[in-house]
Amino acid sequence: MEKKAIIFDLDGVIISTDELHFLAWKKIADDEKIPFDKDDNDALRGVSRMDSLELILRKSKKVYSEEEKLILANKKNDIYRRFLSKLTKNDLSRDTLNTLNKLKENGYLMAIGSSSKNTKYILYRIGLLDFFNAIVDGNDISHSKPNPEVFLKAAEKLKVNPEYTYVLEDAVSGIEAAKNGGFIPIAIGPASFSKDAKFIIKKFSDLNNILK
């Protein structure tokens, strides 16, 4: 009998940090006199920090060296982490926490599969660092979504078959990554527009209607 398992993206799924990402990237873009708005920020969902920076710099007339890019990426992360340091357990919704606890009670193995290098710090801030069976983040991977690497590594840690493993994502690129890895994609939020989603949910607790 196959093990019951689900892999979650972090940002926008377990906890919403979109606004914090936007504010941090906006500061970088403004300092560099590069136009950047909420639509630009949405295009960065599921994308690694350096790849996100590359997308932003495409709008600049300046050519940046690799050293300059690294400085900007680190500056963005410093700004973002200052915002993250204010996160608490109260920022985790009751709907999400209750659903996670119910899934655990029902025997589900659970992992985080996120491109963010701040994943463990965020989980620590909201009290979930020791909750999941496995965590794979931007420090463990070489390729951003839609490459399925992050989910495949999470499945490997869980010792589960992707074919029987669900992935919950809020980014279209994440849904595509789940499909590319042979997982069962569940979409929430902006990912609901993805044609590759096997299931679509409006709120986190709707998982209870899918995962028995």
- Oligomer designation: single chain
Biggest sheet, strands in spatial order? 3-2-1-4-5-6
The biggest sheet amounts to: 6 strands, parallel
Which architecture of the largest domain does the CATH hierarchy give at level 2?
3-Layer(aba) Sandwich
State the CATH topology of the largest domain. Rossmann fold
The number of strands is 6
State the order of secondary-structure elements, H for helix, E for strand: EHHHHHEHEHEHEE
CATH class of the largest domain: Alpha Beta
First-last Cα distance:
15 Å
Global outline: globular
Summarize the structure.
The chain is an alpha/beta fold.
Fill in the keyword field for this structure:
212 residues; alpha/beta; Rossmann fold; DNA polymerase, domain 1; six-stranded parallel sheet; 8 helices; 6 strands
